[in-house]
Amino acid sequence: MKTHDPWKRFQEVAESPWPFVRAWKKNTRRKIVGHLLPDVPEEIIHAAGALPVAIEGAGVPVRLSQNQIPGYSCSHSMGAMELALSGELGDFDGMVIPYVCDTTRNLFHIWTHSFPWMTNEFLRLPKRIGHPKAKEYLRAEFARFFQSMAKLTGSDNGTEELAASVELYNRSRQALRRAYKMKLEHPAVWTSERVQTVFSASLRMPRDEHLVWMDDLPWNEPVQETGSRIPIYVRGKVWDPPHILDLLDNLGLLVVEDEIVTGYRAVAQDAVGDDPLEALVTRHVATTPYTGYHQDPEQMTAAFVDRVRASGAHGVIFLNPKFCEAAGFDTPDFRAALESAQIPTLVLETSSRGYSLGQLEVRLEAFREMLASDLP
Amino acid sequence: MDPIRALKQIKQITTEYFTSAHMAKHNKKFIAYCNVFTPVEILYAMDMIPVYPENHAAILGARKMSPEVLPAAEAMGYSMDLCSYSRCDIGSIKTGVSPTWGLPKPDLLLVCNAQCGTLTKWVEVLGRMYHVPMVLIDVPHSGSGEQDTAAERYVRSQLEELVEIVQRVTGAPLDPDKLRETIRLSRKASDLWTRMLELGAMKPSPITVFDQFVSMFPIVSQRGTQAAVDFYGAMVEELEDRVARGVGALENERFRLFWDNLPIWPELRRLSDVLEKRGASVVTSIYTWAWGKLAVDESDPLADYTEQYLYTFNLHLARRIDLYSEMAKQYQLDGFLYHSNRSCKYISQDIPLLRAAVAEKTGVPGVILEADHNDPRLYTMELLERQIESFLDLLTAQKGTG
Q1: B349, A106: Cβ pair inside 8 Å?
Q2: pTM of the full predicted structure?
Q3: Where are the beta strands (DSSP E) in A142-278?
Q4: What is the span of the domain harbouring residue B84?
Q5: What is the pLDDT of residues A18-38, one digit of tens each?
């Protein structure tokens, strides 16, 4: 009888990465660099010799950070501050905050003021996704970022090391895409919740080791599938509250594609090309645009509806972080466009403060009932 | 105290501006919606009248009309957590309720995100409503203000592209002489506005920020026109006369305060009365100063716009601490009123740290007033009044005067 649970260690890292990264630092004597989400190229941090660790504020109970940032800020910013104020990030050497909205712009300065002992870096991502000059600028910004990370670690690594890091992360993304596909084919074992745990762990531990761990997953074990599931599409930032995937699994709602920055969106594109910096830029531009980025207003709505249609989803859930202005402005028109295309929607505004799991379950159940009644 | 006489012109100026904006098509002119940090001199020089949805929303707020339009935007799905200017604008479009006969339909939507990211997303909504070109001048934030030549190239290239797009919309090229004249008028208005703000440093101050808020319309909407130059010329002349005669905006100026952030538009009169009763003159504000640094030079205006958007308006926390500390000295301040504005996260999220740091550096205390610039449902005025009263009690005790 097999007693080993191949999912457990992923779950442990995803839920509490701090002891793991502390041990890694002690063993390797290398630097840890935290980064907020989305779109920080981990390959660059890795190529400089540090361990990139994604910081998610969602789900962190907020206490100390309420004195530092007003309560009308999103739970990602407040939760990240809380982790640092409570000492969880005490072993971190650096922090990278990407410029994706006004809150991240402010948070960088609040962070620098509050935690001057860290090397804090602001990654200036352009908002005009796809504009040729934005690509040119982004390449220069990634080059500056690489220099900054190399300065932090004291490394003289260059293009060769960056190319190796890109290759490693591409392999990791391919493996994660395979896991996502297993979820679609065998959701009874490869549940959304389990697969996301594997995704989350990849953002918080060395990728080479993560790839080895993934080999141990039940890729070839026979699976007895039970019950039918309703395919849905999810748009949002992170899985907030984290238990939502468990709820979706239990309700028979199968996420066939998502734009969550720690979910499928994070692995959908590889970085390809001889020049690793250019490959990272191309990958960034090809990735489904984050809600804080700008595109032609009408095209962005039409492109979203096309993505949903192509996924085969029967319904769409908007998982909007409370106080996120970008998501708040997009949602009404996106929703109207989907409803014109006869695709039902559910908007959930999430926050680590004051949400009720029970209420969430009731709303998801009602949505499921609605979708089920639409089935032929 | 007698009101500033020149301020009486504002109603006429506003009416004439909106009339000319509504008559744009008839006069073979075009309409561009834009925001503060956009190159309006180029627009005026190319026969485009700049129209500010934010300004329209502020007028709705100041006239206490926002509760009539806000629910309409919320019924469309726009959350109460979104900027109340945007909700007022969208709600006004939906309901037709407006003190300015609405806004004329745009031919171009222009946004610069050096101001905030909210505007980009708000204007994307307008782009889907009006089906006209939208141009974003994307300004990568310059971190702690360090020079970024790649960002400078990126911003400048977008400004060059803007000129080409405006030419396509209007069908006419940019006339360099017309641009020079517009820049000259804009600089004059900006210099006069700056002089007006500097007069707040006089003791007693001849002007309060409430007067400044009321007088903002031309510097926002008509930079680059003679109307703005004439108005601020009259304002400065009258204020300098007050200074020469030792006349203050308040009869008995006991405290000199700073207003941080945007005004609470629906409460201008009530706040002004509460403060005046206690002899508290609010003599300066970071908000009105934003328009004091918008002038550009004729020789290479695109370089100046680039510099301003990337560096001048990067009001990051460390810079604000230094700036407010300098202003505490320059304006001989007794206290800071920090408006923690639910609708403007960009200039509100660092207020707790800002207040503590400025107090530590200067010894000048501050009080945080949590409110909203246009949605009166998001604050309680009685609570704000009590907070202000308590703060003034503290200042009274510190001064040792009864």
Answers
A1: yes
A2: 0.96
A3: 230-236, 253-258
A4: 5-175
A5: 999 999 999 999 999 999 999
